[in-house]
Known about the structure:
Helix content: 10-25%
Distance between the termini: 27 Å
CATH architecture: Roll
Largest sheet: 6 strands, antiparallel
Number of helices: 2
Order of helices and strands: HEEHEEEE
Strand order of the largest sheet: 1-2-4-5-6-3
CATH class: Alpha Beta
Structural class: alpha+beta
CATH superfamily: Hotdog Thioesterase
Strand content: 25-35%
Amino acid sequence: MTPSPISIQERFYPESTCFGCGQANPQGLRLTSFEAENGVISTFVADEAHSNGMGTLNGGIIATILDCHSGAAVLLDSASETGELVDLWVTAGLQLRYRLPTFLEHPCELHAQITERTESSMVVAATLKSDGKVRVQAESRWARLPQR
């Protein structure tokens, strides 16, 4: 599949109302992720509404964007050569390691890549970097939804 200038979320789920990455949710974060050489990448620019009240990014917002960004890696991996979604996946687990505070004044650079894959599950490693430093590391497990 050739990399697209359109985000993974806009390509596969343009009508999604997911709070983290749904492009059709006017109150959501509207995260956009793009295919990269080694997984998927994104930039998230926080504002005061995403604060923990002390000048840093709220931990729940961090969890949401890393979960949704990891999901973009899974979506991309599960698409066919023609770009159609073959299977649907859901988060089965998410572990976060908050290493350093993430200050609001710097954009967040997100990276995610699949590290394990079976027919029914995937594991994704993701990082949030800001101001040149890894601030948060995440590992998520994804389960394939059975077809109805």
